[in-house]
Amino acid sequence: FWKDVPQGPPDPILGISEAFKRDTDPKKVNLGVGAYRDDNSKPWILPSVKKAEDAIYNGKGDHEYLPIEGFDAFNTSAVKLAYADCPAVADKRIAACQSLSGTGALRLGMAFLKRFYPKSNTVLVPNPTWGNHKTIAKDSGLDWKEYTYYNPANYGLNFNGLVGDLEKAPDGSIVLLHACAHNPTGVDLTHAEWDQLYDLFAKKNHVPFFDMAYQGFASGNTDHDAYAPRKFVKGGKSILLCQSFAKNFGLYGERIGCFSIVCDDAAEKDRVMSQVKILARPMYSNPPIYGAKVVSTVLNTPDFNKQWLADVKTMADRIINMRAALVDGLKTCGSTRDWSHITKQIGMFAFTGLKADQCQRLAKEFHIYMTMDGRISLAGLNSKNVNYVAEAIFKVSN
Ligand code: PMP
């Protein structure tokens, strides 16, 4: 049956982990993986998550089906975490559906737009963006187009270019926005720039489609990181929001996320919710239960919640410290280049500015693995390998 099926290309990011695994050199470093590691390069189970797991499965857990929209206590707490004091929460006009992590939320969101937003068939995505955004759009039957975002000249934001492109876009365009910790660049808008962007969205009636995969993980503060979606909602925009609990809870493999749509009133919310469920049912019927129980137990138990806020800050701070240590290491080696963008950028990743041939040399000569666009995951750095990495980057970039 399948003799004409062609071999597909390997996933560009997961392919790096494979090459890393095959490398037997003890000095090897994986800067490709988008998952948090502690100072010993080990995955970290958050103490708050551990406490919740002990509490849940202390003889009380079962493995029943969830409803299509997922675990009610989870959806309520996910909405509260994202939207906090936005009046839309108290008005009960936010439709929320548990999703298969952030990816599943994006998929539900794009399927919803495809079916119910006939005004546009195109999602505008930042240039660059997380590669999966484009393929999710395509597989959902939508087209995608890039808007200006990154400025390679200063490794920062091209805000004027961004505003110019969104001004030029047809009114009512769908625009995908990274709420915080932009992947792959680590370059975020300031709060003042978000305010300006909000005015533009209000004027152009664009549809804000937020991807928030790193709430708390960027600055260490969950309110600070949720500034943009809250600003839009408080201003009266009907946003779509994709939340992932992979990074900020360390629950990568549990596939726990939430897709929500802010509606004009409770009746609209009920109609929207009914359609989101109709989309989810034939995709996966209903979502997994474990991560939903863990997240809602953490968020709804005051002691665990306090511990979790500290855990998130521990991760964010370690990453921020690794940025500084890498730049210090480069200076110590004698690099005269300006590496300050590495400490200015935020979140899991830094866009180093290294070229593909330099990245290749890092892999071949120094056993350091990263994506060929020069993106490094700071989580792969620790107190033991950061100077080795700094020296290697110095050698290939001088
Ligand atoms: N959006 C962005 C920007 C991401 O970086 C990621 C994770 N790499 C995701 C969404 C989704 O991840 P997950 O499906 O594991 O929650």
From TrEMBL:
GO terms for cellular component: mitochondrion. Its cofactor is pyridoxal 5'-phosphate. Keywords: Aminotransferase, Pyridoxal phosphate, Transferase. One of its GO terms (molecular function) is pyridoxal phosphate binding. In eukaryotes there are cytoplasmic, mitochondrial and chloroplastic isozymes. Residues 27-393 form the Aminotransferase class I/classII large domain. It catalyses: L-aspartate + 2-oxoglutarate = oxaloacetate + L-glutamate. Homodimer. Pfam families: Aminotran_1_2. This is Aspartate aminotransferase. PROSITE patterns: AA_TRANSFER_CLASS_1. The keyword Transferase applies. GO terms for biological process: amino acid metabolic process. SUPFAM superfamilies: PLP-dependent transferases. Its EC number is 2.6.1.1. CDD domains: AAT_like (cd00609). It comes from the Eukaryota. It comes from Stentor coeruleus.
